[in-house]
């Protein structure tokens, strides 16, 4: 087929080249990722191998130490057994010697005890004899005193009998006078006490009930009025703060759009005044000039 003038040829080769280039790029990306992953895996495996070697070394060293310690302990135990046997034999010999000495000491102690006991017995006997003598003397003195006292008491009783007859006559006269005075005083006191108690109890009960009811009603009304007034004042202060004017980001954006539209219509640059730039810097935006085409 010959080429027809005025008609463009289809560039098939260009399309194929583009596909090949894309495939190459994708392959290269995959290969890079695989290399990175392989490197990470290899590093981990190396670390694990090192750790295993260290663990195995530590185990071997521990086993060696334990074997040495076991052998040492065996030797120590053998030596200790021998020492114990020797010490037992020595102790037996010492015990035999001590027993002989103790027998001699016991005999001496018995003699000394017997001497002390004899002395104590003598002392006790002497004390008993002394006490008996004292008691006998005391008893004799007591008997003498009793005889004296009996005589005195007999004489006292005789005197008392004579005195009692005279006292009886005097007591009769005194008793009559006392009885008359006591009866008059008791009757007057009882009547006065009963009248005073009844009047005081009735007056106190009525006054207490009236005072309690009045106090409770007044306190409840005052508390409710104070709470309502405080709530109204807080609401008025919040409304005044919201009415204050301020420049927002929307106001600045609207001014930029209007300036661009006017510039396109008249084919003139948009305004770039210093005041306009300052507003933009406050909101953290950098200013860039856009020339109209």
UniProtKB/TrEMBL annotation:
Output the superkingdom of the source species.
Answer: Eukaryota
The record's InterPro entries line, in alphabetical order, gives: H1/H5 (IPR005819)
Show the segment(s) annotated as Disordered.
1-273
UniProt keyword Nucleus, yes or no:
yes
Q: Name one GO cellular component term.
A: nucleosome
| Residue spans of biased composition, Basic residues class | 1-127, 151-245
* One Gene Ontology term from the biological process aspect of the record: nucleosome assembly
Protein name (database record): Uncharacterized protein
């Amino acid at each position: 087929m010959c080429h027809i003038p005025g008609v463009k040829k289809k560039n098939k080769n260009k399309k194929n080249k583009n596909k090949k280039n894309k495939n190459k790029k994708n392959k290269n990306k995959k290969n890079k990722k695989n290399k990175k992953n392989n490197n990470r895996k290899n590093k981990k495996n190396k670390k694990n191998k090192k750790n295993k070697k260290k663990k195995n070394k530590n185990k071997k060293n521990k086993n060696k130490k334990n074997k040495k310690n076991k052998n040492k302990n065996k030797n120590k135990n053998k030596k200790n057994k021998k020492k114990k046997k020797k010490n037992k034999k020595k102790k037996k010999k010492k015990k035999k010697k001590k027993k002989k000495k103790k027998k001699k000491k016991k005999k001496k102690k018995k003699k000394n005890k017997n001497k002390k006991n004899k002395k104590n017995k003598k002392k006790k006997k002497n004390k008993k004899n002394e006490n008996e003598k004292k008691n006998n003397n005391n008893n004799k003195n007591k008997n003498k005193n009793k005889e004296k006292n009996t005589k005195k008491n007999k004489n006292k009783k005789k005197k008392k009998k004579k005195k009692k007859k005279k006292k009886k006559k005097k007591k009769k006269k005194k008793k009559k006078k006392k009885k008359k005075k006591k009866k008059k005083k008791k009757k007057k006191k009882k009547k006065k006490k009963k009248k005073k108690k009844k009047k005081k109890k009735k007056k106190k009960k009525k006054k207490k009930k009236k005072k309690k009811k009045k106090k409770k009603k007044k306190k409840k009304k005052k508390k409710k009025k104070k709470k309502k007034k405080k709530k109204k004042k807080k609401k008025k202060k919040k409304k005044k703060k919201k009415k204050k004017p301020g420049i927002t980001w929307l106001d600045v954006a609207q001014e930029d759009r209007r300036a661009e539209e006017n510039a396109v219509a008249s084919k003139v640059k948009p305004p770039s005044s210093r005041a306009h730039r300052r507003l933009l810097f406050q909101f953290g935006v950098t200013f860039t000039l856009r020339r109209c085409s």
